Structures are given as structure tokens and as C-alpha cells.
Amino acid sequence: MQHIISIGDFDRDEIDSLLNHAAQIEKKKYDTNALAGRILAVLFFEPSTRTRMSFESAMARLGGTSLSVGSVEACSMAKGETLADTVRVVSGYADAIVIRHPKEGAARLAAEFSTVPVINAGDGAGQHPSQTLLDLYTIRQSMPVEGIEVALVGDLRYGRTAHSLASALSLYNARLHTISPKGLELPATLAAQLKEKGMEITEHDSIDEVIGDVDVLYVTRIQRERFPDSASYFNVASSYRITPELLAGAKKRLIVLHPLPRIDEIDPRVDESPHAKYFQQSRNGVPVRMAMLMQVMK
User: How many C-beta neighbours within 10 Å does residue 62 have?
Assistant: First the structure.
């Protein structure tokens, strides 16, 4: 049984192999009945559009089916059932579980009690490995990942997508630039781990300092749901905004990525720019998650 809880569960060769498989899937080179008769349990205890629907789409395209509890209020956790017991029960109904939960470490706990493979679809401010895999896949469509310069912008303290991507990029000798509001910097423990792996990380006060040097501009929203109170959120909301004027000084090959949803951190005018790849990034979730499902349920 193989769980996917953290991007750290993969080495570079394993990532490349999975992304190569996704590329074949995107070319329609796959068995549409590969997972016929298999069932995926979708346990999402936080709101989601892209991650949830792309997993369900991926399962359907492989001939399988999905089961969902709908929300916390619709399942027995609303009656006080523990996550461990919920997972014990649900793993008896399905061949794999994909889980999203507001608490960091919830996916790893689920894996301890599940009798089927568990895929982490986001656990609080922890990890989001499937998002990272599709991020890398999107970057590969524009340029080789090896040695690129990447700027992470926005909420780097609570942003699990940024945490996972930074960890993965350390396998590709990438150089990292970070731009975040005060108090939302990349966690010191994560930064230390990345530096121990030889990753070069440089903090900046503004995007203007790096826009002409980076290959990837990875933008994240300020996550209101992670803040202890509204006042703390509004103090840093709208700290950064990507505009066509800002991108005028960028490299020709620069791509702008965003895990979505966006609020106001990317001007809608950027959507028409050749730099904008975030909707393509979202679409890439289907072939990448198809490859993931085939890997854990093969």
C-alpha cells in the first residue's frame, strides 16, 4: 500500500516518472477502464473546487467512481466521531481515500488508520503534494525545471502549496526568491531544511526587485481562513498585485502560476498575457491526478 501524504514521499526520479506518465495520459495514451470497478472516497472537510472536481474527473476518466460525504455537517463527525474512526469506516467502502482537512497532520493520521491508500489533498498549513506535482508539470511544459529561478509571493507562512513546491524544487537545484508580508514569511524550520539541502533562498521586499530575473512567479492569496482574527488578515490583505505593467520588465519566458482561487492579487488583465499559465495549471490537475490514482490503485 502506498500513501501520498507529502511531496517528500517522492524522490526526483519518482516525480519525473509520474509526470512523464501524466504527459502520456494528456496525449490520450491510457486505458479508459484502468480503474473500472474501483471506488475513490472523497473526504473534504474544507471548501474546494479545483482539487475536488479534478480528482473526481480523473477517477471518472479512468472508469472508476467516487463517493463523497459532502461536508462535515453531513457525516458522523458532526456527532463527535473521530477522524480515525471515520477513516476506519470509509476505508471499508473504497479502494483509496483522498482527504482535505483544516488541521496539519490530519492526512498522516488518516494513513495510520486506513486500510487503503490515502492521498493528501491539503492539510491545514502543511502539505499539498498533488498541487505541487501539477505545478511542476506546468513548469515543465514551458521550460526545464533544473536550475530555474522561482519567486514565491504572498502568504508563505500558511500557504501549503508554497511549502510543498519549495520542497520539490530543492530536488531540481532551483533558486528561491521569497516576497511576503511581515509575519507571513516562509517558516524558519522549512527554510532551514531547504538550505541544508543546498537550496539558495533570498528574501525580498518587493516583486520589482526580482521580476527581471525569475523564470516562475508563483503567486498565492493571503488566506483569510488561516488567520486568528479579521484584523490580522486585513493588515496584510492586498499587499501585492501582479499587473501587466509589472510584467513589462519580466523575462520573455516568465510564467505566472497561482494555485487559485485568486482574490485581487492578479489583475484580470494579466489573463490575456502569454505569461499567464494559471488556468492551464488548473487544467493540468486532471492528467496529473489520473497518474496519481493509477499509481496508488494499480
Answer: 23
Q: Are 277 and 137 in contact (CB under 8 A)?
A: no
pLDDT one-digit tens code per residue, 167-189: 999 999 999 999 998 888 999 99
Please state the domain extents for the chain: 7-127+285-297, 129-282
Q: Is the pLDDT of residue 211 over 70?
A: yes
Residue 149 identity: E
The answer to whether 242 touches 255, Cβ cutoff 8 Å, is no
Answer yes or no: CATH 3.20.20.70 is held by domain 129-282. Answer: no
Report yes or no: 220 and 158 within 8 Å, Cβ to Cβ.
no
Look up the pTM and report it. 0.92
Kind and range of the H or E run holding 14: helix 12-26
Distance CA 123, CA 135 (A): 18
Topology, domain 7-127+285-297: Rossmann fold (3.40.50)
**CA-atom Rg of the chain in angstroms:** 19
CA angle at residue 49 from 47 to 51, to 5 degrees? 95
Residue 81: band (very low, low, confident or very high) from pLDDT cuts 50, 70, 90: confident
Are domains 7-127+285-297 and 129-282 of this chain identical in fold?
yes
Where do we find the cell 455537517? 73
| All residues at 6 or more sequence positions from 208 whose CB lies less than 8 Å from its CB, including other chains | 246, 249
CA nearest to 51, candidates 118, 106, 129, 150:
129
**What is the biggest distance separating any 2 CA atoms in the chain, rounded to whole angstroms?**
55
One-letter amino acid for residue 199 of the chain: M
Q: Are 129 and 164 in contact (CB under 8 A)?
A: yes
276, β-bridge pairs: 256
